[in-house]
Amino acid sequence: MKIIFFICLIFISFPKLSGQKSDITISRKFDKVPFVEFVEEIEKTTDAHFYFRHDWIKDVTISFSGTNVSLSKILTDNFKKTGLHFYKEEDYNFYIFPETPLSTDLPVYKHHYISDLKHIDSKDSITDTEKKYLEGRMIASIEVITVGDKEKSIKGKTCIINGKIREKETGEPLVGATIFIDELKFGTVTDLDGQFKLALTTGKYKAIFNYMSMKKKEYYLQVYSSGTVTIEMEKELIEIHEVTVTANRFDNVKGMQMGFERVSAKTMKEIPVVMGEKDILKVVQMLPGVQNVGEGSSGFNVRGSAADQNMFYINRVPVYNTSHLFGFFTSFSSDIVRDFSFYKSNIPARFGGRLASIFDISTRQGNKKKFFTKGGISPVTGHIMIEGPLKKDFNSEEASKTSFVTSWRRTYSNWILERIEDYDIQNSSAFFYDATLSLNTEINDKNLFKVFGYTSADQFTLSTKNDYSYSNTGASLSWKHLFSLSLTGNLSLVFSRYLFSNTDKNEVSEEYKHTYFINHYETNADFLLVTPSNHSIEFGSSTIFYDLNRGDIVPYGEESLRITSFLGKEKGIECAVYISDEYQVSPRLSLLGGVRYSFFGQLGPAEINEYFSGSPKNKNNIKETNTYNKGQLIKLYSGPELRGAFNYRTGNNSSVKLSYNRLRQYIFMLSNTIAISPNDQWKLCDYHISPAVSDQVSLGFYKDFPKKAVITSVEVYRKWIDNIVEYKDGADFISSNPVEMQVLQGKQNTWGVEFMLRKNAGKLTGWLSYTYSRSLITVDSEHKENQINNGIEYPSNYDRPHSLNYISNFRLGRRLSISTNIVYSTGRPITYPISIYYSEGQQFMHFSERNKYRIPDYFRIDLSINLEGNLKYKKLTHSYWMLNVYNLFGRKNAYSVYYEAEDGIIKGYRLSIFARPIVTLSWNFKFGNYSTE
User: Chain-centre distance of CA 865, in angstroms?
Assistant: First the structure.
């Protein structure tokens, strides 16, 4: 067989060898000229092109004098004592490299008689000469992709490459795939539609394409002019000893991102969770700088900020309540999640409206070649997802232009409530569902349309005491258009609605019903321009119209003495324009600058109280009440939101980054609790309540250890917030008192340091994060009534200095893995009663300074065992089992500590949500084999 193999090589190689052009000749004089200058001069005056790494030739000089001397001879003579070699192609492309020279001659191989061929073992190794020959041919074995038109090629001109990367098996775009140009030592990543842009001068470049669980692709890009390129990647079954995560290989050190995390759906699958339900938000809470507001609760705090300072998007639809069952589950199924990005500093200019973080979820765009289904059941839910081509020619291997994805999930948890030994719980009921549908159609190479719809609903009845009902509904329509190879636009229309209803039946005489809703209408126009001069410019605009009804508090039942309270309606419009520019100054230095200018207007109809100047806002100080008509502008706020960052690479695998951003928030939440609950009310800034403004500075050092597949980072940050909203003692947001009488505005200072160590390869993968942070608030005024804590600085409700998270996944084999979570954090601040006093025979509690004490520290260990089905290639369905143990050692972590006076004695109680281990077994399935997605 080897004879046949080498005969084929001879015939393949012969046309090229026989057609070689004569070498370039030089008639010049060079005296110890640096190699780079020599190359620049030769490329200007001849058709030669050189490819090399600068660190290989930094000390090399060229000396030569003569007439009509071969360029190859000049290189050979000058490379004799340098250890360098070169390889020349027929188009005068010279490849410079160190160590062993490439072999370009046919090998002298051993002859075997035909009668002996049957005795040759296939395991016999080839000769050293044959091996050298094959290595010499390797450079020619990499496929060359031609970009642009050769006839339009201009030497030295910078061209724009517009590319797509998609999965070969499904035709679905790959989000976050990396493109690395080996000669230039820089790269980029694909966007949510699997697209990327690169600016390269004409020439040949080695491009490396990477994506998690896909085979690495290497091509030579022969760039003649601007053009397009499409790359299809194939799945790769991962060996036991080589579990590699490469989705963001070049982000940690070389990207501009700071305070940024991107987590794959595969990572979510392996993290232990309560009730066996995969949960995106629970994964986020394991990242540095992020803490949950309470066990089994909705919302989380980012860098010491309130939960309402986080923005959640799913396919551009904002989600105002992200929880099912008061925070036990997330309100959208993880089956449809393709990728999510989390920003907590250096927030892109296209985002705004929140001070702490942006949580951007993108869903699967659907299999364009065949139908695919997956789902599962756990002790409390059942879920299923279906995707596929909308119109498919089953006799063709070509991908459909249109695909769909739909998912459904619902609970059946009442059987658990019936088994709890508590009368109120046994007589309670809980129900939720969520569903999504998306259509994605690629009309041609220039136009992509996406339609997405989402709905979720919850109903919860607590015995005879409370009825809760709340829901999210949203939809988005997006059009992505390639105006030119340099300019891409993305236009979208968005609608979102959040509604809740609460019936309180705790006391017959005080029974009431309350219904609330907020409608969100939004338009976006986002553009990306990549210029030949290494500028990546993003610009655009957005408009949001808020229609908010805080509802009415009305009596419920014939015996209720509750007085009806009208909380009012609010309307507002928020607009913004932005522009940012990322510029690569050199291979080591990148800069980013931008500005977002936002406006917010409060609109009528409304009745606004005017208070006497300089006096506290209370009923005694109302000067007059003004009436505004429908659509009339009541109050306008505006201001710039600056962005700035730089990345300096201190080495091939390390960098220092610095960023600054200013943000404004025009909507906030009225709540008397630490956690977000369904009856919390979103509230717009108005005539009396100014928008909160934050300034954040972050500095970080990033280091990768490629051989050990370890990435590390350390970030230090400082954030200042003005006009932070705090609540007066005893604030009641379902009363008839205006909100401005119940809130005060002050200043918040937060700072901290975050450490992250992540291991992406080997049998053991995972990460370790530690955060030290502080969050302090000051609300001071010349009026005692407008002070909190006597104007003295106090810890915010979210001040938890120490936080440690450890996540690991250990693969015992291809089918069996064990995952572990370890979570520790300082207890949150709390205000305790410190004494009792009597007035006119009545007993009263006297409380400490605000948030002077803390509840006990939080500590938890979780365990998960994941068992995959068999690994047969041809099978109808594949399934896996997950055994989860949440709170392995049954630690009684305090959700809250409260006090009650009983018989003249104050007694303290600790409330724990999960005071014992929660063991769940879930089963998940999908059509196809182990690697099918």
Answer: 26
| Contacts within 8 Å (CB) and 24+ apart, 737-744 | 738/609, 738/617, 739/670, 739/683, 739/686, 739/689, 740/609, 740/617, 740/686, 740/688, 740/689, 741/617, 741/618, 741/619, 743/689, 744/779, 744/781, 744/786, 744/787, 744/788
Of 475, 389, 482, whose CA–CA distance to 440 is shortest? Answer: 389
**Integer Cα distance of 282 and 272 in angstroms:** 9
As beta bridge partners, residue 503 has 467, 513
Q: Which amino acid is at 764?
A: L
CA 828 from centroid of its chain's CA atoms: 27
Domains, the chain, ordered by start: 2-141 (3.55.50.30), 144-236 (2.60.40.1120), 260-395+416-443+452-687+696-927 (2.40.170.20)
265, burial (CB in 10 Å: exposed 0-12, middle 13-18, buried 19+): middle
Nearest to 674 by CA among 280, 291, 355: 291
Q: Which residues pair with 357 in a beta bridge?
A: 310
Cα–Cα distances in angstroms (integers) from residue 380 to residues 17, 149, 271, 861, 880, in the given order: 69, 59, 18, 22, 18
Distances (CA, A) of 759 to 348, 626, 764: 27, 62, 8
Q: Going by DSSP bridges, is the β-strand pair 144-147/217-223 parallel, antiparallel, or unpaired?
A: parallel
Asked if 666 and 685 touch (Cβ cutoff 8 Å), the reply is yes
Quickly state the pLDDT bin for 801 (edges 50, 70, 90). very high
CA 265 to chain centre: 11
At 187-203, the pLDDT tens digits run 788 888 888 988 888 88
The crossing angle, in degrees rounded to 10, of helices 2-18 and 128-141 is 50
- Cα(577)–Cα(583) distance, rounded to whole angstroms? 20
Helix, strand, coil % over all residues of the chain, rounded to 5: 15, 55, 35
Q: How far apart are CA 731 and CA 356, in angstroms?
A: 25
- CA dist 916 and 378 (Å) reads 19
Q: Is 129 left (phi over 0), alpha (psi -120 to 50) or beta?
A: alpha
Which segments within 550-666 are labelled E, that is strand? 552-555, 565-566, 569-584, 589-603, 606-611, 622-628, 633-651, 654-665
Report the SS3 class of residue 98: strand
Relative to beta strand 49-51, strand 93-98 is parallel
Question: How many angstroms separate the Cα of 659 from the Cα of each of 68, 152, 429?
Answer: 55, 41, 49
Q: Give which of 643, 694, 767, 645 is closest to 304, Cα–Cα.
A: 694
Output b/e per residue, 45-72; b: 16+ Cβ within 10 A: eeebbbbbeeeebeebebebeeeebebe
Tokens of 684: 């717009």
DSSP H helix total and E strand total for the chain: 10, 57
Give Rg (Cα) of the chain: 32
Question: Per-residue pLDDT tens for 238-271?
Answer: 443 333 333 343 456 666 677 677 666 666 665 6
Segment 429-451, tens digit of pLDDT: 888 999 999 999 988 888 999 99
Asked if residue 558 has pLDDT above 70, the reply is: yes
Please return the burial class of 429, using the count of CB atoms within 10 Å of its CB with bins 0-12, 13-18 and 19+: middle
Burial of 907 (0-12, 13-18, 19+ CB in 10 A): exposed
Return the H-helix or E-strand segment holding 57: helix 54-57
Which residue did the predictor score with more confidence, 107 or 886? 886
Give 776-781's long-range contacts (Cβ < 8 A, gap of 24+): 776/748, 776/749, 776/750, 777/724, 777/726, 777/746, 777/747, 777/748, 778/746, 778/747, 778/748, 778/749, 779/726, 779/744, 779/745, 779/746, 779/747, 780/746, 781/744
Q: For residues 714 and 754, give the distance between their C-alpha atoms in angstroms, rounded to a whole number.
A: 6
d(Cα 481, Cα 91) in Å, to the nearest integer?
Answer: 37
Q: Please name the residue that has the structure tokens 């450890």.
A: 806
